[in-house]
């Protein structure tokens, strides 16, 4: 007959086997009871069955690990590098010019391995033009068939072809910018490699299809397409799945654009260990840019991927779960669902939360912020024709919300601190034109003002707001676009150095002061390409996605330095404004017409160097400036002083890259 102590020991082994079967060896429960609870209790098989049933329906386990629990150990192993395929990197494919008949490409391809070409995967060749129809450093959009257009490029004497539309919002790439070995989108600055079609800078997620290009003896340019690429205009890079023999565990914290890119890039780069993706919101990652621009969008239309995608590639998505404490000495992350997870490497991109200033009445019902999809949902539930809306703040969030709502409610009033909106970002001249645009569209603009009190009724709902001049405005819905705070409290006392404002300093490879802990997105205080010598914290959507890619590359054993130029965009009453660069300025030089919203603005600093460029209705000039900075070049006042040809500087894009000693 078994002794009681032996029975208890046997049960403890069975119990922890159940835990490891359910949640995996990297996860243990938060510790609320001690092991004496086991030592003083008698357990039977029914108890074990009850535990198994209850565990399945419970999100938390309040049991402490014991010597009988197989504790997960970090491996300390470097990421195994997957063998590169011919002509491309892990996760990519190459379908460029064939070395057989294209005389123009033979010399360049002799320097490296020829791309693998399997005729079974491709269509028959289609003649798209004559080789003499395209010049050096030229891009042409051509018809491949009735439904498919391609972008044909000639650079360094070589012909290459990729998809014709940006995978982000479908911009025609032939109107974009040709860089050295890549093409940049004219609208929002996404970049694609000409050799592989892979996305290298953002926004967006997917890559371009590539095409096989040949030139026959008659000088015809013949193009073949991969049959599967004809089905759609974008391509998902090859991704690996989890290998049960790979004992590593990587965690990505933050379900925004940065985390979404990171988890995909990890799988694209060959990481086959366990991958946990922690998302504080109840939704899968989505296009956050659209939350304030189109608050009526349904979640399915703005999500990056569906649940089946993450399941297919063994990405464990923990929705409605937040990180609560990071312990880098133990390589552990505590989560709001009660789990403590051991990690080998971790990427943290927890972003920001909207900030409500401490104005009396700020806690009343119908006082809203716009940051997340749930915020937009709660606002749209209140929208009706007789609603009176006040937007506090005159920067992007408040203005985009006002622009969206004004045609759906009785009135919209914007209350701003400066004399014109967007003054800090664009300067006074552009701000004055934006002010006029809003007034033309029936938005009341109360500038050089603020709200001192929010007045509610007996039901706790806002009915009025009092301004700094003590006047009162009727208000049924108050939207605060008043800044944000960094979501980094859980990193306090973790070993990671957190700055006083909540941001985190990172290296040029996005690693913190603690090895194996990477930080990116809004919370990262990082270097950028351009004139800023110090680290900066920039909350741009494009930069956040780029950080996710760079972090993943470095986590998987590559050595990839940050080389991004900040690029952002807004849409106000149908006027799209782009902006690239970063830095202080003393003067704004306007080229074009502010009145017609067809202009380029050059922001010039005290050293007569252009730190940033903005435009409206003048694509692709902002993308051109972004590409110029990414090539390590700069733009000076002397290059834009000639009013008759202020864009002569764009010729610099075709010149060789500067040599770096």
How would you characterize the overall build of this protein?
- This protein has 661 residues and is of the alpha/beta class.
- It folds into four domains: 126-230, Rieske Iron-sulfur Protein, CATH 2.102.10.10; 249-354 and 486-556, FAD/NAD(P)-binding domain, CATH 3.50.50.60; 374-475, 3-Layer(bba) Sandwich (FAD/NAD(P)-binding domain); 574-654, FAD/NAD-linked reductase, C-terminal dimerisation domain (Enolase-like, domain 1, 2-Layer Sandwich), CATH 3.30.390.30.
- It has 14 helices and 36 strands.
- The protein has a six-stranded antiparallel beta sheet with strand order 2-11-10-5-4-3, with no helix packed on it.
- Strand 12 (249-253), helix 5 and strand 13 (274-279) form a beta-alpha-beta unit.
- Helix 1 packs parallel to helix 3 and helix 5 (257-268) runs parallel beside helix 13.
- The protein is globular.
- Mean pLDDT is 86; it is low at 1-22 and 30-115.
Brief synopsis:
The protein contains 14 helices and 36 strands. It is of the alpha/beta class. The protein has four domains: 126-230, Rieske Iron-sulfur Protein; 249-354 and 486-556, 3-Layer(bba) Sandwich (FAD/NAD(P)-binding domain); 374-475, FAD/NAD(P)-binding domain; 574-654, FAD/NAD-linked reductase, C-terminal dimerisation domain (Enolase-like, domain 1, 2-Layer Sandwich).
């Amino acid at each position: 007959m078994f002794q009681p102590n032996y029975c208890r020991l046997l049960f403890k082994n069975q119990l922890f086997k159940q835990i490891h079967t359910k949640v995996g060896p990297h996860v243990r429960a938060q510790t609320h009871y001690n092991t004496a609870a086991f030592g003083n209790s008698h357990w039977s098989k029914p108890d074990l069955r009850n535990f198994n049933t209850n565990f399945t329906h419970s999100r938390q386990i309040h049991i402490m690990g014991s010597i009988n629990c197989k504790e997960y150990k970090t491996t300390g192993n470097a990421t195994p590098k997957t063998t590169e395929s011919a002509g491309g990197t892990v996760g990519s494919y190459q379908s460029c010019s064939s070395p057989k008949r294209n005389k123009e490409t033979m010399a360049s391809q002799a320097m490296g391995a020829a791309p693998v070409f399997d005729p079974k995967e491709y269509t028959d060749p289609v003649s798209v033009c004559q080789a003499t129809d395209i010049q050096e450093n030229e891009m042409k959009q051509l018809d491949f068939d009735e439904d498919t257009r391609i972008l044909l490029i000639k650079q360094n004497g070589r012909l290459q072809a990729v998809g014709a539309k940006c995978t982000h919002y479908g911009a025609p790439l032939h109107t974009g910018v040709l860089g050295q070995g890549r093409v940049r989108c004219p609208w929002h600055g996404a970049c694609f490699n000409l050799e592989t079609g892979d996305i290298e800078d953002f926004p967006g997620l997917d890559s371009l299809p590539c095409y096989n290009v040949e030139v026959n003896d008659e000088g015809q340019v013949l193009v073949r397409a991969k049959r599967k690429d004809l089905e759609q205009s974008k391509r998902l890079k090859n991704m690996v799945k989890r290998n049960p023999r790979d004992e590593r565990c990587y965690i990505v914290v933050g379900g925004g654009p940065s985390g979404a890119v990171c988890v995909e890039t990890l799988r694209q780069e060959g990481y086959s260990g366990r991958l946990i993706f922690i998302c504080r919101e109840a939704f899968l990652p989505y296009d956050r840019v659209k939350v304030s621009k189109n608050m009526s969008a349904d979640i399915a239309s703005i999500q990056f991927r569906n649940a089946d995608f993450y399941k297919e590639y063994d990405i464990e998505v923990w929705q409605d779960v937040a990180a609560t404490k990071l312990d880098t000495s133990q390589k552990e992350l505590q989560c709001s669902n009660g789990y403590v997870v051991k990690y080998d490497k971790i990427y943290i991109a927890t972003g920001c939360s909207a900030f409500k200033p401490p104005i009396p009445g700020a806690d009343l019902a119908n006082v809203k912020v716009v940051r997340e999809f749930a915020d937009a949902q709660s606002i749209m539930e209140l929208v009706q024709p007789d609603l009176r809306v006040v937007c506090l703040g005159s920067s992007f969030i408040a203005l985009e919300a006002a622009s969206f709502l004004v045609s759906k409610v009785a009135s919209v009033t914007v209350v701003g601190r400066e004399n014109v909106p967007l003054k800090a970002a664009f300067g006074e001249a552009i701000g004055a034109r934006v002010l006029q645009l809003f007034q033309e569209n029936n938005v009341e603009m109360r500038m050089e003002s603020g709200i001192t009190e929010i007045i509610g009724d007996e039901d706790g709902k806002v009915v009025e707001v009092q301004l700094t001049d003590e006047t009162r405005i009727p208000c049924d819905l108050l939207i605060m676009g008043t800044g944000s705070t960094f979501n980094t409290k859980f990193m306090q006392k973790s070993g990671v150095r957190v700055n006083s404002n909540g941001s985190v300093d990172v290296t040029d490879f996005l690693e913190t002061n603690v090895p194996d802990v990477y930080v990116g997105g809004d919370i990262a205080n990082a270097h950028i390409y351009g004139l800023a010598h110090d680290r900066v914290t920039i909350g741009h959507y494009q930069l956040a996605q780029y950080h996710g890619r760079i972090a993943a590359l470095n986590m998987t054993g590559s050595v990839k330095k940050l080389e991004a130029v900040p690029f952002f965009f807004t849409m106000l009453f149908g006027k799209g404004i782009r902006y690239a660069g970063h830095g202080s300025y003393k003067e704004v030089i306007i080229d074009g017409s502010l009145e017609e919203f067809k202009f380029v603005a050059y922001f010039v600093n005290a050293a007569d160097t252009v730190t940033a460029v903005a435009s409206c209705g003048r694509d692709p000039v902002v993308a051109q400036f972004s590409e110029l900075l990414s090539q390590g070049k700069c733009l000076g006042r002397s290059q834009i002083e000639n009013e008759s040809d202020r864009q002569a500087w764009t010729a610099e894009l075709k010149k060789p890259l500067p040599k770096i000693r």
